[in-house]
């Protein structure tokens, strides 16, 4: 019956279910393993010490686990490429769905622009005389072409992009552990660096809290598996598999990397803040380590841009199909790609990129800050949607045993995730509040995403006079139900 429904959906002109299980696995992995692990992770050790970084990433990892299981329960029951907007519309309030959709769209559209800027900066390492804009245009063209071909092309590209990153982390962990025990390098390093200075915990609880913010940014992108569910060959089987296995691998990679870096490089070393991977590879005697890591980080940037283009175009398409964006964006080409939504996202990403390249720096900083906060807002939405979904499911007398995937520890799981997300959002500008002064410019850039979301939410609510949907009235019908 499920295969019949998929065939009908494809014949009716909807998104084609072409993403395989291996694509979903790497989409989830690639979404979370990026510059957060290759660059920002060293800064966390510098700020809070190896012990503080482990605690912070562990706590955020638990939060992300609950978010992923919440998303998994909804995505297997109702797979949809406009997932966050659709779930918020059906399970909470149409106005909330409208704001969630546009929030997630501009989050990834801006991310595409920032990754293109980052890619151009990385290319200066090899080609310092080439204008950065040329590389940005080349990379943006590559990302657009991959997304224009088909969902399968995006998934295949992400499979290889993410595969390179995963292989790098695995090699790093093997080399790092071998170096710790003297198998590489010729002498036993051990774990003395865990007690250098104030280590393992530097700066106390405040430092750990500040690392929460960085850790949260590092894990953003894991929710892409929910967007990809709408084009998965068998979401009921593949989504739970991706969520159950990939999360633990990601957490292991982050915790393992922090452990290795903390053991090999004291937090007092200035190099840990800028290039921990390069330093470890260099100490292991790997030639051209800096050039190698620059290439891998470039791969990570292209992966993020590729995923951002996919997520934003599918979100815009989903909103158009749901009546929350112009119907023009709901058109598909012969390969099942929402080409108009893709073009619109490309234009917006290009404008944001030009703002960063030629306009006032403050505007670009605000755009990037709004995008970062939008990711946490999306996580709040996932937790809230799942809480409402499960309560509505039970209130309508449905059998929980018929769910293809059930999130663990309900309602505690989504409540913990919701509370931690809110804490992280409110803590964005904490460093700008000092005892004797307030950096209002910094505060504004940290929280600018919140008023944008509230304007979308309350503006739609006032215009259409929407209300929070009663549990008994929540629409739990899926495509194959009458």
From TrEMBL:
The keyword Transmembrane applies. It is found in: Membrane. The keyword Methyltransferase does not apply. The chain crosses the membrane at residues 24-42, 48-68, 133-154, 166-188, 208-229, 250-268, 280-304, 339-358, 364-389, 409-430, 442-460. GO terms for molecular function: amino acid transmembrane transporter activity. Residues 23-467 form the Amino acid permease/ SLC12A domain. It comes from the Bacteria. It is a multi-pass membrane protein. One of its GO terms (cellular component) is membrane. Keywords: Amino-acid transport, Membrane, Transmembrane, Transmembrane helix, Transport. Pfam families: AA_permease. InterPro entries: AA-permease/SLC12A_dom (IPR004841), Amino_acid_permease_CS (IPR004840), APC_YAT (IPR050524). PROSITE patterns: AMINO_ACID_PERMEASE_1. Its main location: membrane. This is Amino acid permease-associated region.
